[in-house]
Amino acid sequence: MYDFDKIVSRENTNCAKWDAVEKGLLPMWVADMDFQSPPEVMMALQERAQHGVFGYSSGYGDWFEVLIQWMRKRYGWAPQREWISTSPGVVAALFMLVRALTEPGDRIIIQPPVYRPFYYVARSNGCELLENPLYFDGNKYRMDLEQLRQKVDSRVKLMILCSPHNPIGRVWSREELLALGQFCLEHEITIISDEIHSDLVLPDYKHTVLASVSKELEQNMIVCNAPSKTFNIAGIPASNVIIANENLRSAYRRVLRESGLALPNVFAVTAVEAAYTYGEAWLDELLLYLEENYRLTAGFLAERIPEIKLVEPEGTYLLWLDCRSLGLDDKELDSFIKEKAKLLLEPGTIFGTGGNGFQRMNIACPRSRLLVALQRLEKAVRG
Description:
- By secondary structure, this protein is α/β, with parallel strands linked by helices.
- The protein is about 40% helix and about 15% strand.
- The protein has two domains: about 15-40 and about 280-380, Aspartate Aminotransferase, domain 1 (Alpha-Beta Complex); about 55-275, Type I PLP-dependent aspartate aminotransferase-like (Major domain) (Aspartate Aminotransferase, domain 2).
- It is built from 14 helices and 15 strands.
- A seven-stranded mixed beta sheet has the order 2-10-9-8-7-3-4, sandwiched between helices. It has a four-stranded antiparallel beta sheet with strand order 11-12-15-14. A two-stranded parallel sheet has the order 1-13.
- Helix 3 runs parallel beside helix 11 (about 265-280).
């Protein structure tokens, strides 16, 4: 039994979420959790720190083996060992993959509203951004492949997929991924699938690793995932880059070496091994706790703040709040959230096209803190 109700002070720890914000605001923004990591991870790091010598790493230990076992058990699909490379983080991997796989003037597809760094990545290496906005029917988002079909041309080389999708919380179905994969195969577009939230899926849904959809697609894409969101170790530089295609893999590893990032952080190896080996029971309890936080939020909004509509999530601990009925423009909405509700959320506008009138809220915190946030929001709306 793990205590997710425990309040852990993160202030004065050089913490982006708590220390880089205006005093008096309750931070429910950046995507890390206010829970301690699994005890086994903390113990492993403490033991490694007590050794006292932190020289260069010589390899990855059991990192790749425990990742393979984790993915096989959780998703029914696992990479071969030689397919696995690493990166300090998924965003760093995205930048390196664009360097490895594109030329200036190539076009890269993203599907907004989407994680903000995708915009920077898609414009890197002299590339041109191509937006294919998700279709929203007022309740649920879906990919619009017919719209995309009208936009693609021979200059489109890559698509960056967010799966599960941040900030809207969609967990793409196998059928949706198959349709997308076939489209990209037909148009010779390589997919980079950011699956960093893949372990954080609500009970009624199932994450599908894009590479598992078909053998043909497996050779036309890259999976990027990490233990960082799952086990709340985002401050430790560790992510996985899984590439079945030998040519794509060689291109990525060349850029990885040229960037001076081929050797892992000494604490990253320890944390990854412990998390994937011993963290499953902790994660399973976490998912139940997050589900209850979601249900609390959904019920509270429906009963007490119906002006704010929750887009029903399928995964992640990030909720997408439709605030358009408040009748505020985006600048007014941001001021309302900060100055009246005394909350720090993520404005929908930072997620690009389709984000106007929305706010993203992180509910990965003790329930008592979540309730305070909801009460502040209610007071602001009613005040």
